[in-house]
Known about the structure:
Distance between the termini: 67 Å
Radius of gyration: 23 Å
Order of helices and strands: HHHHEE
Shape: elongated
Number of strands: 2
Amino acid sequence: MHSTTNNMAFKIKLSKLDVETFLYYARIDQMFTYVGVAKDTYWSYASNELPQHRQKSLTEAMEFCKHPFRGRYALLQAIVTSKEMPNKESYKGVLKEKLEAIKTAMVSRPGRITTHSEHWYNCVNGYSSAIGE
Length: 133
């Protein structure tokens, strides 16, 4: 009887650890995709396959939440939030041609903010924006 109780407690602790691990992985994966650090051929994998893998992992994490452990409802809410994250717009790099067109417009358009490097400009909504090299 004592061994069965210890075994069940271990499984519950392991379930919570599994859910937390899935959540950490999903968050890191989502941030990696969002900030656009992936380049060239890996970008295709990062933007297409990683979100699918993340969704599958989070679905598995939801299954672990069926076990009774402290904080499972908070973790379940975090899973739901994480599952919605990939639906948000991710960072896409600016093409070199677009960057050059923006820099040209900054120099030749009225209403620009002139600086020594000409990296500041006013967007159509009136906000000051910067473009780095």
